């Protein structure tokens, strides 16, 4: 679990770094740097944000499922409804 958290933090750090690169590219004086750098770094930023949000959703699903299974083993979950 610790390694997963470390990888998640690296992905967040890379997303912030590429966001900064996008900002720098759009403020550049040369037009080709604005276009190439803005598109390249912007696409990488969006990709890394999507990956990070997918990881967060997967961890939330895994945690809720583990909690529901633990309740069922103790006999407290009737099966009606379930955790959301």
Description:
Helix content is 82%, strand content 0%. With 84 residues, the chain is mainly α. The chain has one domain. The longest helix has 44 residues. The chain is rod-shaped and about 65 Å long.
Question: What would a concise description of this structure say?
Answer:
With 84 residues, this protein is an all-alpha fold. Helix content is 82%, strand content 0%.
Query: Which structural class matches the secondary elements?
Result: mainly alpha
Question: Which oligomeric form is depicted?
Answer: single chain
| CA(first)-CA(last) distance | 22 Å
Strand content: under 5%
Write the H/E string, N to C. HH
Q: With helices defined by DSSP (H or I, 4 residues minimum), what is the helix count?
A: 2
**How many domain units?**
1
Name the helicity range.
over 70%
Instruction: Output the radius of gyration.
Output: 20 Å
Sheet having the most strands? none
